[in-house]
Amino acid sequence: MISIFPSFEEKAAGPLEAEGIEIFQINLGYRCNLECRHCHVEAGPNRPELMSRPVMAMCLEVLQRYPIPTIDITGGTPEMHPDFPWFLKECAALGRRLLVRTNGVVLLEEEYADFLDLYARQRVEVVVSFPHVDPKMTNRQRGEGVYSRLIEALLMLNKRGYGQTGSGLILNLVHNPSGAYLPGLQNSLENHYRQALREKHGIVFNQLFCITNMPIGRYLTYLQQTDNYEEYMTALVNAFNPATLESVMCKSTLSVGWDGKLYDCDFNQMLGMTVNHGAPEHIEMFDLNRLATRRVVTGNHCYGCTAGAGSSCRGEIA
Amino acid sequence: MADYYEQKDLADFANIGEYAPELGEKYFAYYGEAMKDGALSAREKALIALAVATTQKCPYCIDAYTNQCLSLGVSQEEMMEAVHVGSAMVAGIVLAHATQMRKIIKKKEM
């Protein structure tokens, strides 16, 4: 398909280059007990992709060898990986900042309920996807009944100290727009979430991360099927903010796929665009110097991270 | 009508400072200050803007502020209530102007 939009590198006035590896993001696989309509991973209960034990061991070896400060575990929902309890304990033993991105509701399943205590014991930062404080918006995006189950899961996390002042147990939420529009300012939405969740359910949390939906995966299909693709891309391109280029996450993150392949971000991973420009593309060939200064592989989806106040796995960036 | 109002022209709003850049800059500075979180939240301001946009029948503003409201997590019900506030105000304004009509009728009729 010939793009009607200017190439990202052209708009960014040159290539993006990494400036180190601060965040080692590990995608354990695409298995999830939900099938959210905005999911760029297209995760679901029948996805077979799971990180093998040898690849997990290679990740740990790299982390032991290099003092990368943050380990960020994602999926799918990581709890559904059978080796995750072992891997989580190994990661926690490294003494780095450790965070897990979960769909939240999986913690209510009997099989995975132990993770609530395991996370608290290992002082894991928990990041829960929570797209909207309006139940019908959340359910439309993530499935019928998900909102009330999420509330139950957040209350259980709060009960263990998560999100409570002084506990040191961090509970962050993620907002994704439930449709073909960009997220609003993080500060405004965070205030709205804080008030609504406290008043309606007595729930507390630390921070809200607003993440722009990337025009890839299931969300791209949604945009195309509803004739919103061109308008959405136009909105992203028109909202291009050069100030975001300073802190886009690819400058400080390395993403490891379930099969050990290396990517500039989780979005490139879903597009099958491994690191390039001479950097080693598999964890077994890990070379910190070459990866820390690699040239980033970009595409038109990158406009999603540079629109407005910008977007990253930690929300706004500018 | 389509030739006058094109959706893509909304993006041209950023260029309204053309031919008068200093005034354009001042306008955007003022606009930015007026719309940001203050004693009223950005959500409340977006709802006011949406009501104004519909009463003024500005297609660009309706597009921009429907999106802005969605982005700020405003619900469909809140948006529709804001439109009804604008609608009720316009109806009231029309009816209030009937005062003049009624006064003239009373003066002129025997």
Structure summary:
The complex is a heterodimer of chains A (318) and B (110). Chain A is an alpha/beta fold and 318 residues long. Chain A has 12 helices and 8 strands.
Polypeptide structure, described:
The complex is a heterodimer of chains A (318) and B (110). Chain A contains twelve helices and eight strands. Chain A is α/β, with parallel strands linked by helices. The relative contact order of chain B is 0.09. Chain B is mostly helical and 110 residues long. Chain B has two domains: 10-39, no CATH class; 41-110, AhpD-like (Up-down Bundle). In chain B, helix 2 runs antiparallel to helix 3 (59-71) and helix 2 packs across helix 4 (76-108). The longest helix of chain B is centred in the last third of the chain and has 33 residues, at 76-108. Chain B has four helices and no strands. The chains are: A alpha/beta (318), B mainly alpha (110). The interface between A and B is medium-sized, with 22 and 15 residues.
**How would you name the oligomeric state of the polypeptide chains in this document?**
heterodimer
Count of the separate structural domains of chain B:
2
- Annotation, overall tally of beta strands of chain B: 0
CATH architecture of chain A: Alpha-Beta Barrel
End-to-end gap of chain B:
47 Å
Let me know the average pLDDT of chain A. 96
Task: Compute the separation of the termini of chain A in Å.
Answer: 32 Å
Give the C-level CATH assignment of chain A: Alpha Beta
Strand order of the largest sheet of chain A: 6-5-4-3-2-1-7-8
CATH topology category name of chain A: TIM Barrel
Average predicted local confidence, pLDDT of chain B: 94
Radius of gyration of chain A: 19 Å
Give a short account of the largest sheet of chain B. Answer: none
Q: Judging by the overall fold, what is the CATH architecture of the largest domain in chain B?
A: Up-down Bundle
- Element order, helices and strands of chain B? HHHH
> Could you give the count of β-strands of chain A?
8
Q: What count of structural domains of chain A?
A: 1
